[in-house]
Amino acid sequence: MEHFVQTLVDAVSVGSLYALTALGIGLIFGVMRLINFAHGELITFAAYALLALFGLPTPVMLFGAIVVAVALALITERAAFRPLRNADPTTLLISSFAVSFFLQKLLILVVGSRLKGLDFLPTLGRQIAIMGVRLQLLQITTILVSAVLLVALTWFLRSTRLGLQMRAAAEDFRMARVLGVRANRVIAVAFALSGILAAAVSCLIVVQTGVVQPRMGLQLVVIAFVGTVIGGLGSLTGAALGGFLVGAASILLQALLPPDLRVFREAFVFVAVALILLFRPQGLIPARGLKERI
Amino acid sequence: MAPADVTKAHDYGILPRLWPLVALLAIVALIALSASFAPIVLQRRATQGLINLVAVVGLYVFVGNSGVLSFGNVAFMAVGAYVSALLTMKPTAKAVFLPDLPGLIAHAEWPTLAGGLAGGSAAAVVAFLVGLPLMRLSGVSASIATFAVLVVAYIVLGNWTAVTGGQNSLMGLPAYVDLWTALGWALAAIVIAFVYQETRSALQLRASREDEAAAQAAGVNVVRHRLIAFVISALLSGIAGVLLAHFLGIVRVENFYLDLTFLIVAMLIIGGRGSLTGAVAGAVVIAVLTELLRQIEIGFQIGQTTIGAPPGVGDVILALIMLLIILFRPNGLAGGRELTWPFGRG
Amino acid sequence: MTKRVPLLCVSGLVVRYGAVTAVRGVDLAIGEGEIVSIVGPNGAGKTSLVSAVAGMVALTAGSVAFAGEPLAGIALEDVVSQGIALVPEGRHIFASLTVTENLLLGATVRGDADGVRADLDRSFDMFPILGARRRQPAGQLSGGEQQQLAIARALISRPRLLMLDEPSLGLAPAVVDRVYVLLRTVREGGVTILLIEQNAERVFGLADHVHVMSGGEFGLSGTAAEIKADRRFDAAYFGVHMHETVGDR
What is the ipTM of this complex? Predict the structure, then answer.
């Protein structure tokens, strides 16, 4: 019984991480129809920021990670994506792929490709007992942080003027501009928010794995991408749900599969995704007003 | 992106129409020929370049005609490489690296050509199976799905230790790929790609590239034509994987993942993803560029000191060039056009 | 008779998309408080004309002046703060947002939150059906209701010029009648109206001036009464210049 609850909590925790990652990707896709491969680099660079600031008080480290991720997001938007704003989705995809690799190779050039250990917030590795079940404090933290961010994001989108403009822009960008919504502002805010989400994911991952390496972000977003596609491109709820399902399924499969098949669990998840897409190519929760261009 | 401008040449006899093919074959053959007089190190680089050319042409067959970017072709290269390796490795070598291999494969020792063709075919079969659901997705969703194919292949091949050796390298492959073998396959790939893009299926697929809804309304079966392109693309990619494996003499799953994907995609984008000329141009340009960058990384000796760039600069520069191309010349160097008949009309 | 500066003044407007010329040199003047209508068949260039004025497409040649000031080079987002509101063809309401949210978006350029709230209530008075459905997603509204929403949304920015591109498209005749009655009320409120329609008959009862557009040019222009009576109307509507257009390809 305890094992069951532990697996469940683990699944929710990992699912939340992927949901946050997928949300970051979905936010950008909503306003720009851009699948941002470089989102992975936001996560990676935020982790290296933690590494660079190691030794300073934790709030400073966290702040540094957020600043780096947001700054990088805004720089990539301004330099690489704004000029391509009206390009077709494939060109946008290629550019984000190029940006992602450029950043990754640049990082490797500067810090090398080997992984580095980082003992960040080790106290979160403690186990605590909740209702008789032993759980990792980190898992609880992950779930709480994800929930808080989700609620905050939802509040922002539903209750603020800027959030309303973003939702409108995501549905019909041109009409929003006709009404006076500033394109640059809305897109910059989307990128900044995605940077914050990336920083949060980065911190949680670093605490969990204790390791920083140049490929860490890319590995995460690969799975998150698949989550956004299955959840329904263009819908934030879909992205979060898809990311969550893919992450949680990965953990559940790890528990349910026989030992020698466990290493293939991600492959199983992807195959399941392919099957779902076969019957529902628009995803689980498709976006309203999504143009066929996608 | 303008489709290959063939219909105009149509009115002027068959040679202008075949010109892009003839010119490309000649150029590639010439490059290989000149490399054959160079020192052995350069020859090996040229061979690698020709193998990459096969891979880029393979990618082009799908991307150029369908307009959908595929990240999964390196997975097909991996399939081709592993299948060919398993069939052509000496049973004694297989016993060392893959003791748990099923008997039939463990004792097989196929001739290299048969093994190679089997590798390509296996890739094509995988592409067919994977493509059945995938080709129904449109545009960006399909691209992400091909990315998932790459990851799945990496996971499966990297963990199926009994059959592939998992994360370990398979060594002792017959290393039969020299400059001329690679050239032969490079020329064959160009011919196959050219012949394919002249077919009705490819023409209809290119029609759907610009406006999928309109093409479907006109009765074009986009899914089927995409699948055909995908399978042929995988065949060529599989062959490229075979060539790579039997050139290096080893197969490592790590060699068939993101870095190679980036290289092949970069070649196609820089050369121009809308035409066969672009694919070939990309391969040639990047081969020359990587050679230059390698030299810069090795450095130049001035007296006692060696001035060179830190390792890894080459990758950064390649990524930067790809970014600049997509920003300022999104159709690549070839601009979506094929080489045109230079001798005027009539 | 003193000549007042027209609210909207378009001279020599040319709009070209690549090889296709959609608008070939149009002159248009709209006085404050007028209802001017441009009628013409599909492909006449009406939407291109309006889009160019609204800043949605770039004009190839010519000039647009609003309230005496040139509109050249103004970003799309800034047009509405100049005082021009567009109800585009197909309405383009945000289906996933509520009626209220749609209206609030119309007030994007306004800074006075209290004034906006007051105007929201006024919108609900003017368009009772919107008031009744204020919390519903706009996608659930009927065609006619969405048209009202689109107009209300445009009005809440307090424009001086309201441009409507084919508001009657896809609506039942009775619904169109109601919309046109609404437009009269809007004009009485001091808003100048530019109305684009395919169905010419309808606008005769509403518009002061009518221009008949075909093949990218104005064929006939005059008061509604003049155009209605003019025997050359059919030819102008269906394109005296049709053969010229074909030859241009």
Answer: 0.86
